């Protein structure tokens, strides 16, 4: 399973996922400043699930009917970095098999997974 981190994702999350041996690219490393539609296109080309903190991707998928292999929307940007890392680690340990072709919303005390 592959992942692509949007620019909105704090880089320590990318580092954590790499340490956990997930295959993850970060858009900031090769296509910084790309518009959301382009980021979604890159995720699809890489056959990756997009990880983001940007709510606009929900509109692209549900309202504008853009194709995706899955999106993880992290609604935890207000939390300290250490807490974010704990939440992402728990997400991956509990739900990683459920993430493909789903729109997953992650909050401090809640994970919602919807089929796209």
Q: What would you note in describing this structure?
A:
By secondary structure, the protein is of the alpha/beta class. The chain has one domain (2-115): Rossmann fold (3-Layer(aba) Sandwich), CATH 3.40.50. The protein is 40% helix and 25% strand. It has 5 helices and 6 strands, in the order βαβααβαβαββ. A 6-stranded mixed sheet has the order 2-1-3-4-5-6, with helices on both faces. α1 (11-19) links the parallel β1 and β2. The radius of gyration is 13 Å and the shape is globular. The chain starts with a strand and ends with a strand.
Question: What key phrases describe this protein's structure?
Answer:
about 120 residues; alpha/beta; Rossmann fold; 6-stranded mixed β-sheet; 5 helices; about 25% strand
Largest sheet: 6 strands, mixed
Beta-strand level of the residues, as a percent range? Answer: 25-35%
Low-confidence stretches: none
**H/E topology pattern:** EHEHHEHEHEE
Number of H- or I-type helical stretches: 5
Query: What is the radius of gyration?
Result: 13 Å
Strand order, sheet with most strands: 2-1-3-4-5-6
* CATH level 1 class label: Alpha Beta
Class derived from helix and strand content: alpha/beta
Distance between the termini: 17 Å
Helix share, percent: 25-40%
Mean pLDDT, all residues: 97
Overall number of strands: 6
Count of structural domains: 1
**Inertia-based shape:** globular
Corresponding CATH architecture: 3-Layer(aba) Sandwich
- Say what the CATH topology is: Rossmann fold
